[in-house]
Amino acid sequence: MDLERKLEIAKEVFRKEINTLEHIQNNLDYTFIQIEEAVASCKGKVILCGIGKSGHIARKISATLASLGTSSFFLHPAEALHGDLGMVSEEDTIILISNSGETKEIIHLMPSLKVIGAKLICITGKKESTLAKECELVQILEVNREACHLNLAPTSSTTASLVYGDALAIVISEDIGFSASDFGLYHPAGTLGKKVLIKAKDVMAQGSDLPVVKSGCKITDAIVEMSKKGLGVIAIINNEDKLCGILTDGDLRRAIEKKADLYGDIIDSVMTQNPQSIYEEILLVDVLQKLKESRLNNYPVINREKNVIGMITWQMIIREGIIL
User: Fold this and answer.
1) Which of 121, 146, 178 is the last residue of a domain?
2) Of 144, 178, 212, which residue sits at a domain end?
3) Maximum distance among all alpha carbons in the chain?
4) Which helix (H) or strand (E) holds 259?
5) This prediction's pTM
6) Residue 208: which domain range?
7) Are strands 278-279 and 243-248 parallel, antiparallel or unpaired?
8) In the chain, where do the E strands start and end?
């Protein structure tokens, strides 16, 4: 097969699957709303069930639902037939996926599921199938032809189910008021999770690592403290531990250029007075935004009593993987 023919076949697969999705989109009706409301109002778990390629899609839909705030898990029908049905309760809603609607492992589950009392929803391509007749809510995803040249391998039909599941999960998430903060809570290791969870107090230099001196000390004392802590900046506080200034390594270089008496002059004579600061509860991503806008490299961190409790630099934020 020549290269051009291979590329044309690939493009044809895209065209077939896009056409399938457009057909389903144009025919989507209030059955979708009924299913969305049933899932969104479920008091138990939302269980996805399928086997073969439909099983893979069911796993993905379940994972997306869980990721967007709907408590969900995947149930393998073969395992369910051998005891895993014990995970299903009356308060659950179960979504069964079978393009043919005649998958025997799923059909064999129906009597037990009805006794348990879980709400039964199916996604199928066949309106007159056994599965469609057994479920309370039925979503028909009509696929005229698979993208496979043999019209055998589940391709267009699985894509249709997958996109339908994405649409369902996203509409539900908006319906229940799922927020970016909620998403971050469920994804603490991800970039978004860090953006909505990590605060200045979580990464700032504090305690014995905090570079700080008292107002009125000699410049040399500040240099020693700054060198020891290694942040290139130091906070200057008054007798009440309130922030009154900062000194950066840039400030220090400028002071040397102006012939400051490092041993005789006090820190107050060269420090930046009344510097900008941030509260400990501010999100790290907001600190980075403020640093960018102010063109600063660091902020002293204060608590609600305005006591200096930390120092944060842009390098600390970058190390956490926070980006704008």
Assistant:
1) 178
2) 178
3) 94
4) none
5) 0.75
6) 198-320
7) unpaired
8) 46-49, 72-75, 93-97, 119-124, 137-140, 212-214, 233-237, 243-248, 272-273, 278-279, 298-302, 308-313
Q: Is the dihedral of CA 59, 62, 64, 66 positive or negative?
A: negative
Does a structural domain hold residue 185? no
Contacts of 185 (CB under 8 A, 6+ apart): 193, 196, 197
Q: Are residues 27 and 72 in the same domain?
A: yes
Count of structural domains, the chain: 2
Of 19-23, 116-120, 183-187, the least confident:
183-187
> Would you state the structure tokens that stand for residue 311, as one six-digit string?
């120092």
- Helix, strand and coil content of the chain, in percent to the nearest 5, comes to 50, 20, 35
H-run or E-run covering 208: none
140 and 205 co-located in one domain: no
Between the alpha carbon of residue 180 and those of residues 64, 69, 152, 280, the distances in Å are 15, 11, 41, 21
**Over pLDDT 70: what percentage of the chain?**
100
DSSP-assigned letters across all residues of 101-143: S--HHHHTTHHHHHHHT-EEEEEES-TTSHHHHH-SEEEE---
Residue 191 scores a pLDDT above 90: no
Listed in sequence order, the residues at least 6 apart from 122 whose beta carbon sits closer than 8 Å to its beta carbon are 95, 96, 97, 98, 101, 131, 132, 134, 135, 137, 138, 139
Helices 156-175 & 30-40 angle (0-180, nearest 10): 60
Average pLDDT over residues 255-278: 92
Which tens digits make up the pLDDT trace of 278-299? 999 999 889 999 999 999 999 9
pLDDT for 160-184, tens place per residue? 999 999 999 999 999 999 987 788 8
Pairwise CA distance, residues 84 & 100, whole Å: 24
Domain annotation covers residue 189: no
pLDDT at 204 exceeding the cut of 80: yes
**Are 49 and 77 a contacting pair, CB within 8 Å?**
yes
Read off the CATH number of the domain in which 205 is found.
3.10.580.10
Question: What is the torsion angle, in degrees rounded to the nearest 10, for the CA atoms of residue 154, residue 157, residue 162 and residue 167?
Answer: 180
